[in-house]
Amino acid sequence: MQTTLYREHHRTIRDLVSRMPQGAVPPAEGHVRPVLVKLTCLIEEHHKLGDDRLYPAMLANPDPDVRATAEALQAEMGGFAEAFERFSARWIAPHAIAADPDGFARDWAGIRSALAGRLEREDRDLLVLMDRVGHAR
């Protein structure tokens, strides 16, 4: 496992987020939906990688600080993963965004903010910790 892959995921997620509507501009479903599909697939892949590889390795680490950090971040991720799953399920369907662009914009603003915070925390705490303890192999 390498932090390179996680960092690449983060860069790609940020790029996809930058292609999504920002602010009060009504979203154009033809533009937003394909980006949302890609973003959803990548976030699902990223979560699976963490659940299958990263967290088990870190939770088995003999250092209690590593385990505590991994436990806290894993618990946090569960909440974000559930919120993103609900968001995606609601808005990825054809015509959903066009039927309620204001609702989409409102929901997206919340997800975008939570996602930005999550990526920042992973970059600052998790990936640095992975490099330090050697789980980045």
Query: How many helices in DSSP terms?
Result: 5
Query: SSE order, as H and E?
Result: HHHHH
What class, by secondary structure content?
Answer: mainly alpha
Computed over alpha carbons, the radius of gyration is: 16 Å
What would the average pLDDT be, to the nearest integer? 88
What is the helix content? over 70%
Q: Summary?
A:
The chain is an all-alpha fold. Helix content is 82%, strand content 0%.
Topology:
Blueprint: H1 3-18, H2 29-59, H3 64-91, H4 96-99, H5 101-133
Describe this protein's structure:
This protein has one domain (3-132): Four Helix Bundle (Hemerythrin (Met), subunit A), CATH 1.20.120. Helices cover 82% and strands 0% of the residues. The chain contains five helices and no strands. It is elongated and about 50 Å long. The protein has helices spanning 3-18, 29-59, 64-91, 96-99, 101-133. The mean pLDDT is 88. It is mainly α and 137 residues long.
Question: What features would you highlight for this structure?
Answer:
137 residues; mainly alpha; Four Helix Bundle (Hemerythrin (Met), subunit A); 82% helix; 0% strand; elongated
